[in-house]
Amino acid sequence: MGLFVSIWVARYLGPDQFGLLSYVQSLVALVASISTLGLNNIIVRELLNSKTKDGEIFATSFVLKIVASIFVFIILSLFIGIFSIDRNMNILIYIISFSIIFQSFNVVDFYFQSKVLSKYIVYINTITLFFSSLIKILLIINESSLVYFALVILFDNVVLAFGYIYVFIYKSQINKTDLVFKKDVAISLLKDSLPLIFSTLVVAIYMRIDLIMIKEYIDTNAVGLYAAATRLVEACYFIPIIITNSIFPAIINSKNNKRLYYERMQKLYDLIVIFAIFIVLPMSFFSNWFIEFLYGYDYKGAIDVFIVYIWTILFTSLGSVGTKWFISENLQKYLFYRTLYGASINIILNYILIPLYGIVGAAIATLISQIVTSYLFNITNKKFIYNFKLQTNALLLPFRILGVKFG
């Protein structure tokens, strides 16, 4: 439903208006990445390792994230007020950036991930998506302006926050009297997450910088074409993420048995690659039909972007598992360097390729940076080599099925 409605919205708005909305979302996403404080995966790890301090970890994490979110929103508002861009764009930025505050409630999501109870979060996300989709359909039928679609983004985050509160109250196992902010817990969390703060920002840069640079080099119409292709691909990202988030706690629990731990890691990598291949190959072959049938003739220019960008699914899937592996091995400080390399390569390649090949150049830049970040980075340090072997084995799965052994 979400994919269908997002495509309908893109068709209704057209490449130019859809490009403007996507551009503003990218700008806000860059700033919003700071408000996470790099805590997301750290929270899951600490809740997994904790036996008696779930309440303190949860409450402290929430306070840190809500304070950071409010601070980021205020700074962004002041920046817009001082450096006014365009009235319509300013309104869109104000509306969408206000939703940053409500994203702090995703601490509830991390708690249920740590308990392997993500089904409750899925229920809330599904309900929110249903009402959000219904509102978007009504807006299209009533031929509403762009600002109302920005308000729906804010609405999504508000409803989701209330949903998180509901499931936490009725489904969590934390005693409410244990929900206490602890200064020492906050210091410990921030100490571990410090490398991830910069890492998260760099990830946001290289995941969003292409849209921003396309706007600067070309126009919002090109942004709309590029966003249409990439959104269709990114709609598939949830599969490896859900699989990883659901299975990885069980893998961490087997760390005391090194052989079993790495066997499970290999099986997870294999599973992720299988799902990625089953998505990538059919969508590559039928790319013309996908784009023209779903988005219409106005988006025909997005076909070549889609053909290149679809392959990022394979490497982002490897990367999602790899990130969990780095954190479980307490190597999260290296994630900053990993993402920094990827972001640097992406920006440099965008600078070179967008003027030469337009939006297809941006897609090529993103794919190469994903390969470097998610896979090739693991050969830069002997501490990561075994993870590189696991990923390589997964990529060579067809040969392994035939009996050829690697590593």
Fold and architecture overview:
It is globular, with a radius of gyration of 21 Å. The protein has one domain (2-401). The protein has helices at 2-35, 40-49, 54-82, 87-102, 107-114, 119-141, 146-171, 183-217, 220-234, 238-252, 258-285, 287-295, 303-309, 312-328, 333-357, 359-374, 385-395, 397-401. It is mainly α and 407 residues long. The mean pLDDT is 84.
Structural key phrases:
globular, mainly alpha, 407 residues, 81% helix, 18 helices
Secondary structure topology:
Layout: H1 2-35, H2 40-49, H3 54-82, H4 87-102, H5 107-114, H6 119-141, H7 146-171, H8 183-217, H9 220-234, H10 238-252, H11 258-285, H12 287-295, H13 303-309, H14 312-328, H15 333-357, H16 359-374, H17 385-395, H18 397-401
Helix pairs in contact: 1-3, 1-4, 1-6, 1-8, 1-9, 2-5, 3-4, 3-8, 4-7, 6-7, 8-9, 8-15, 8-16, 9-13, 10-11, 10-14, 11-14, 11-17, 12-13, 13-16, 14-16, 15-16
Count of discrete domains? 1
| SSE sequence, one letter per element | HHHHHHHHHHHHHHHHHH
Helix content: over 70%
The major β-sheet equals: none
Tell me the number of helical segments per DSSP (H or I, 4 or more residues long): 18
Q: State the distance separating the first and last CA atoms.
A: 42 Å
- SS-based class: mainly alpha
Mean of residue pLDDT values: 84
State Rg. 21 Å
Global outline: globular
* Number of DSSP-assigned strands: 0
Strand content: under 5%
Query: Regions with pLDDT < 50 over 5+ consecutive residues?
Result: none
